[in-house]
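User: Sequence in, structure out. Go.
Assistant: Echoing your sequence, followed by the structure tokens.
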Amino acid sequence: MNYFDDPATLRQIIMDHYQYPRNHALKSDENYHEVHMASESCIDDIRVQACFESGKIKDICFDGVACTISTSSTSIMTELLNGKSLEEAKQIIANYMNMIDEKDYDPALLEEAVAFKNVSKQANRIKCATIGWKAIQELIEEQEKQDE
């Protein structure tokens, strides 16, 4: 059995990132760009910050009030994308969104983010699982416009 096919393992990954979220503190630094995201269907109300340098994501962090799925998916996203080039990050984000939409994706690129592969079966959880990812997508798009 594949490590990521075990429901208990997937739950453990989600709960670990919910109880001990990584990169869970905003920075007071003008080099960080910020996006505020809120959901009308859940308690999710988060801010995601990113610092970019030389075409890479130097750092990502977040804070706010959010449900288990939102907190853990955003925590995993920060770990996965920190240090990546914008192109690498966009490829990972596209794969994550494909997984959520039940399309073809590369699980090797997603690492622990595959813990959310069954989210599409709970339509009310899709926004929770993607809110942080959509925030970093917005920040990357803004950065690319600035770099033009």
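User: And one key feature?
Assistant: Residues 3-147 form a domain with the Sufe protein. Chain: A fold (CATH 3.90.1010.10).
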